[in-house]
Amino acid sequence: MEIRQLEYFVAVAEERSFTRAAAKLHVAQPGVSTQIRQLERELKQKLLDRTGRTVLLTEVGAAVLPYARAALAAVAGVRQAVDEHTGLLRGRVSVGMVTSSASAYDLPRLLADFHREHPAIEITLSESTSDHLLSALREGRFDAVAISPSTTVPPGVETLTVADEPLVAAVSPDHPLAGRDRLRLADLRDEPLIIFHQSVGARATVEDACAEAGFPPRIAFEASDPNLLAELAAKGLGVAILPAPFAAIRPTTLRGIPLTDPPMRGSIAFAWRENGSANPAANALIRHLQRAMRGGDE
């Protein structure tokens, strides 16, 4: 049994595709298939069900997967121990983020700073919903994720809030509501709303508040990018509900009006496994995020 075979098996199990696994590993697909067949012959058991369009784990494969991951983590730890003695930290970290969250806390800058500190560490970044990100985090497919805290955080996961802003009603300067100092959510009952897509945590916040106020939101436009929501509102296409800073940076084209009864907030938090990771590179990233978000007091 070779480490390479276990690496290929884990990649196919996670990607549910030989093609995607080969692309992720930067190797040819036939080589992936050959190595996994050799592993199955050695174990005398099928690990993958190849009969459908999506590759699935067999019952044996599902039982083997956590041990394969643990073996790869152990090998990474051995390599890391050597690198630490030579002063070089290397490896791979996988970061996930909920759609639209990056602009709330300047994720590109955080990752660029980390890359300058640890140029030998490979960083990958993917987008998804908060629920999916948390599930993948617990399974070890992500090392750190940025989520909406409105999602229920499962046991064993630690979080750090990195953005928390009031949601405002944003309208064009010539909109009938532009002269108001504040608005109740019920005031927007009949207004065409421009709100986040369902993949963004703030969408659930708005929908829940509307339900409590006794009306379904009249959704005219939805998008994951808050800048797009702001631009649509600035063109007079409706009332955008978005974090206050995205209205404040457009003082000539957009008026942000505080929302009361109820006030709403949009938040983003980083999350990671509470007991740390077997991957030293991932632990370095988590420490970097903690220092950056807490002002360097870690």
UniProtKB/TrEMBL annotation:
Q: Which SUPFAM superfamilies match?
A: Periplasmic binding protein-like II (SSF53850), Winged helix' DNA-binding domain (SSF46785)
InterPro entries for this protein: LysR_HTH_N, LysR_subst-bd, WH-like_DNA-bd_sf, WH_DNA-bd_sf
> Where, if anywhere, are coiled coils annotated?
none
This protein's UniProt keywords: DNA-binding, Transcription, Transcription regulation
Which GO molecular function terms does the record list?
DNA binding; DNA-binding transcription factor activity
* The keyword Repeat is assigned to this record: no
Domain HTH lysR-type residue range list? 1-58
- Recorded GO CC terms: protein-DNA complex
What domain of life does the native source organism fall in? Bacteria
Q: Into which family does the record put it?
A: Belongs to the LysR transcriptional regulatory family.
What is the protein named? LysR family transcriptional regulator
According to its UniProt entry, this protein's organism is: Streptomyces caatingaensis
